Amino acid sequence: MTSPTCYVGISELFSGTGRAGTTRTEAVQRIANAAILVRGEQIEHVGPESEVRAACPADTRFVDMQGKTAIPGFVDPHIHLVWGGDRSGEFNRRLHGAGYVEIAAEGGGIKSTVRQTRAASADALATKARKTLDTMLLHGITTIEAKSGYGLDRATELKQLDVMDQLSAAHPIEMIQTFMGAHEVPPEYAGRPGDYIDMLNQELLPEVKERGTVTYVDIFCEKNVFELEDSRKHLQAALDHGFKIRLHADELFPLGGAGLAAELGAVSADHLVHASKEHQRAMAASGTIATLLPGTSFFLRAAYADAASFQEAGCTIALSTDYNPGSSHTISQALMMALGCMKMGMTFEQAFLAVTLNAAAAIEKADTHGTLEPGKQADIVFLDTPGAMHLVYYWGVNHVSDVVKAGRRVVTDRRLITT
Ligand SMILES: N=CN[C@@H](CCC(=O)O)C(=O)O
Ligand SMILES: [Zn+2]
């Protein structure tokens, strides 16, 4: 058996507690002068340093973290990882006054990335996505949900999934895969979203299921994209094929996607800027996580979801960057916490749980991920700060200095360890 490692000299350990998503912000613990004992891939003990040292076996290797803060690795439960090209020109057009919907209607937006993703080789897509994963790891993200959805045809959707398989096997970041063939209506099916959904249901869902690597099916349930009936049809077909489901819901218009998510028992409904109170309550009753995406609101200069309203309705709230080339080109979960606190009325504790334990719940990993507790996977981020509060208090700065993923050190002193 491998010798355990004990991380000592931790000025503050800050973590949620428990094995399920929570609305209880008291579910955070703060331990001053802490230590963490790790054996193999798991945490064996956390607590005050003197207590943990007393529990360490004789062959323990001690690593002095020199006053850093320890938190669980960030989980990001909504990532558009694999895509080609660049939309900075479109972004500049928006700064000059063009609207996101206006650009999309002209064939830009998601469709522009689809063209560039179709044209790119799998190798080029993998190289670009690997760099993104490296940047995420350096910012403390240790687990993500990653979607296809910039192909919108069989070959390119499968190419995206192939790239995800390749990166999943090679990169320390743990990846849960989602098929999002229904991200937009492709040009070949313009004006015929129902026919496209039929094709996805009959041809692609069985083939994707066969791969065995994809957990979820997601859809952009939105006015003039996939409206409620097409969304219901696709999601029901996904459930029938044995997938779990998640939705982009009520982002730009109050269509009722949040209600559909609750009705069908979706694991998560995301965006939710325009979700009605009735649908928020329905989501709470169905246990559907509310994954809020403040980076998108920021980047589109749009309204923010009302976190207090979801909290009051009893929803478990997660936060995600929604990393993508058009509406939220960022990988910083710390920045999402800052936006959650400053723009959505969240407390620090709520925002912290939303990027750790509740984000893990949004990908059904809360029993093993998202907190620093005995028996959980040893996904640990060390911050070069006197406490976790600096994630928001000293905002816009990457404070991550060291990362341990599944018990293995993968970032040391802000540098990736490549093995
Ligand atoms: N809402 C739809 N999809 C993305 C936007 C993708 C894009 O603009 O490329 C989102 O999650 O925000
Ligand atoms: Zn998205």
TrEMBL record:
A Gene Ontology MF term for this entry? zinc ion binding
Stored Gene3D superfamilies: Metal-dependent hydrolases, Urease, subunit C, domain 1
Q: Where does 4-imidazolone-5-propanoate bind?
A: 87, 150, 183, 251, 327
Q: Which residues bind N-formimidoyl-L-glutamate?
A: 150, 324, 326
Query: EC no.?
Result: 3.5.2.7
Coiled-coil stretches are none
- Where along the chain is Zn(2+) bound? 78, 80, 248, 322
Q: Which family does it belong to?
A: Belongs to the metallo-dependent hydrolases superfamily. HutI family.
Protein name (record): Imidazolonepropionase
> To which species is this protein native?
Acanthopleuribacter pedis
Starting at the broadest rank, the lineage of the source organism is: Bacteria, Pseudomonadati, Acidobacteriota, Holophagae, Acanthopleuribacterales
The gene from which this protein is expressed is: hutI
